[in-house]
Write a structure and sequence with these properties.
386 residues; mainly beta; 18-stranded antiparallel beta barrel; two-stranded antiparallel sheet; globular
Length: 386
């Protein structure tokens, strides 16, 4: 896989580097951190915590390479998530001198930097009829009908082809055929027994198809899509109010693909939704941002509702104290045990932090987190955009 990724970048560079009027764009970001558990006295370095309001997550290295011409182009993303060490991952190697005496030690861990998962998308595209029709092929990512909210949700991906039609300004209609949620032949399938297919071959059926659409203008955006394997998504964003950010995104997974079960052990569908509202008071001359992030997971016999109020005040261009509270409500406490193994119907966390901004491309955050369902922790994170 390492050779494939490197070869893809090299081929793209050689193929387009000397094209007339070429337009290259290389960007991405790096983020990492360290968090210490104040109770257990351990730490980990795979985390990147900037508060649930902003998304939290794992350490990440991302590289985007885009080549854009008027009628064709190429897009590529490499990404590695979760690099670093947890305390349980630490391998302590002792160092001895020629006399056999220990003189020190160091820690190591096996990192996975080059696998299929690291290649998030690698696709070429061509535009026809003044850009009203777009053809794409490769490992796909949706840049036309996806959600514009935090998770940029879409119901497509994998390897395949796609067509996008733009009949009027702001309206995007899409059809894609890909390996995103395909079925594969098993050894006991009739087609395999009859010699018409091999075990592991991809089945050619309706599950390869994703249909989606989006309309956006300066005041709002709305999008939705459906993969015929049983996955759907929707998105709405309001843009008409200055300094206000408001968006909703949701997804639905049919019982055959949700990997969720009810109390009787039966497969069940899942709906998940996210709502974000944030207002920046800078228009009133106050360097304050206030917002709330809502999250719901709706599954038969196990609903989860969360919300995270958030405040950020910029003392100056560098220092911004922040404060977040997180509250989660569970409909089935048996499936959400606390740190002592007891069922719970509610949990909460409190996270004060200070963010330091270096220019427009780098931030450092120092935080303390108290979590009812976990343990007290202290950490710091760094992110650099390039």
């Amino acid at each position: 896989m390492k050779k494939i990724i490197l070869a893809a970048v090299a081929c793209a560079a050689m193929g387009f580097a000397f094209a007339e009027g070429s337009a290259w764009d290389v960007n991405g970001y790096f983020r990492s951190g360290i968090e210490g558990n104040l109770d257990a006295k351990d730490f980990e370095t795979k985390v990147y915590k900037d508060g649930q309001y902003y998304g939290n997550g794992k350490s990440r290295a991302r590289l985007n390479i885009n080549f854009t011409q008027e009628e064709y182009g190429f897009k590529f993303r490499y990404q590695c998530d979760g690099f670093g060490l947890n305390s349980a991952d630490t391998v302590n190697t002792k160092v001895k001198n020629s006399d056999g005496h220990e003189v020190g030690s160091f820690t190591t861990a096996k990192e996975t930097w080059f696998t299929q998962d690291n290649l998030k998308y690698m696709m070429g595209y061509a535009k026809f009829y003044d850009g009203k029709i777009i053809a794409e092929a490769g490992k796909l990512m949706d840049f036309y009908t996806n959600s514009e909210a935090r998770y940029e949700y879409q119901a497509m991906g994998g390897y395949g082809v796609r067509a996008v039609f733009i009949p009027v300004e702001g309206l995007y209609l899409s059809a894609a055929g890909s390996t995103y949620r395909v079925d594969k032949y098993a050894a006991d399938d009739d087609s395999v027994k009859d010699g018409k297919a091999k075990a592991g071959d991809i089945k050619f059926n309706e599950k390869i198809l994703t249909l989606s659409a989006k309309y956006k203008n300066k005041d709002f955006a709305i999008a939705g899509g459906y993969n015929l394997a049983g996955e759907a998504y929707g998105f709405f964003a309001l843009k008409a109010v200055p300094n206000l950010k408001f968006n909703i995104e949701a997804k639905y997974l049919d019982k055959e693909i949700s990997k969720k079960t009810n109390d009787d052990g039966e497969k069940t569908a899942m709906t998940e939704a996210w709502e974000l509202m944030n207002y920046n008071f800078k228009g009133m001359g106050v360097p304050l941002e206030a917002g709330v992030y809502f999250h719901q997971i709706l599954v038969k016999d196990d609903n989860v509702i969360e919300f995270f109020p958030h405040l950020s005040y910029a003392i100056n261009d560098v220092v911004s104290p922040e404060f977040e509270v997180g509250i989660a409500k569970y409909s089935n406490g048996d499936k959400h045990l606390d740190k002592d193994g007891e069922e719970q119907t509610m949990s909460y966390n409190v996270t004060p932090s200070i963010k330091f901004t270096a220019g427009k491309r780098a931030t450092v955050k120092v935080y303390y987190n108290y979590d009812k369902n976990d343990k007290s922790s202290f950490g710091t994170t760094l992110r650099v955009n390039y």
